[in-house]
């Protein structure tokens, strides 16, 4: 039900390195993590890049929406200094660069499709899935990533574009129709916020035969609790506190 690593670094390297950058993956590796979750968004010219926020301001200097800016206008921006001066000079990376890095370093991936707005959902799902499928073509030894998204539309588009890629339906609060949604998506797992999970819901998801993944768990006591509930895997911001092989 979960033939994947059980503890993942959230956004590449958790909060120890700039999120969604190669520096994040490197930081994860330094902490023994060979599994990471990261976010994928489209630029205006439809380049899939690793990015969480739909606008500049927090992790990138300046203002402006990602969906209204071409890759050429983003690729030289400072993407590391916001966290710490020692990361100054880090840049954004494209999905292709991220996939290449992770494949080369043996990092298993949970690729979160993150449409900048609802109107971009289908296209973001489609292009992300196509890029991942292309990169894994002919790589028989590599374990396929799981594609996840809060956007049901994006995941449907991913299914249409690359049906063989496993999908996880990502929700904050588990909706009443979760099982129908998973069936329609032909998903392998439900990804959910551990804060709203209950033992009964966890048992129901597991009882229905699905993988169960939680975000974002930052202490071992909580990790142990949800493991008892049957949770298969989680991502964490605190790769310094939680050992990659703790489960
Ligand atoms: O995929 C789990 C988690 O990353 C979802 O929340 O906002 O950190 O992308 P967010
Ligand atoms: Mg994410």
Automatic annotation (TrEMBL):
MF terms (GO), sorted A to Z: phosphoric diester hydrolase activity
GO biological process, one term: lipid metabolic process
Domain GP-PDE residue range list: 5-246
InterPro entries reported in the protein's UniProt record: GP_PDE_dom, PLC-like_Pdiesterase_TIM-brl
Source organism superkingdom: Bacteria
SUPFAM superfamilies xref list: PLC-like phosphodiesterases
PANTHER family in the cross-refs: GLYCEROPHOSPHODIESTER PHOSPHODIESTERASE, CYTOPLASMIC (PTHR46211:SF1), GLYCEROPHOSPHORYL DIESTER PHOSPHODIESTERASE (PTHR46211)
Protein name from the UniProt record: Glycerophosphodiester phosphodiesterase
Organism whose genome encodes this protein: Herbaspirillum aquaticum
């Amino acid at each position: 039900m979960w033939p994947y690593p059980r503890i993942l670094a959230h956004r590449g390297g958790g909060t120890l390195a700039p999120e969604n950058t190669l520096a994040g993956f490197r930081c994860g590796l330094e902490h023994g993590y060979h599994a990471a979750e990261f976010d994928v968004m489209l630029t205006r010219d439809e380049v899939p890049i690793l990015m969480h926020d739909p606008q500049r301001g927090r992790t990138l200097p300046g203002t402006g929406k990602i969906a209204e800016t071409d890759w050429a206008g983003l690729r030289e921006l400072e993407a590391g200094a916001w966290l710490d001066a020692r990361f100054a000079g880090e840049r954004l990376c494209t999905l292709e660069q991220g996939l290449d890095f992770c494949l080369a370093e043996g990092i298993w991936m949970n690729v979160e499709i993150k449409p900048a707005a609802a109107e971009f959902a289908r296209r973001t799902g489609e292009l992300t899935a196509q890029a991942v499928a292309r990169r894994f073509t002919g790589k028989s030894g590599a374990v396929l990533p799981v594609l996840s998204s809060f956007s049901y539309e994006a995941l449907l588009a991913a299914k249409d574009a690359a049906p063989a890629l496993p999908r996880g339906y990502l929700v904050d609060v588990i909706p009443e129709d979760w099982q129908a949604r998973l069936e329609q998506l032909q998903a392998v797992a439900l990804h959910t916020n551990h804060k709203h999970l209950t033992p009964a819901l966890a048992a129901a998801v597991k009882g229905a035969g699905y993988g169960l993944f939680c975000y974002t768990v930052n202490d071992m006591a909580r990790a142990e609790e949800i493991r008892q509930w049957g949770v298969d895997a989680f991502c964490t911001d605190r790769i310094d506190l939680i050992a990659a092989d703790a489960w």
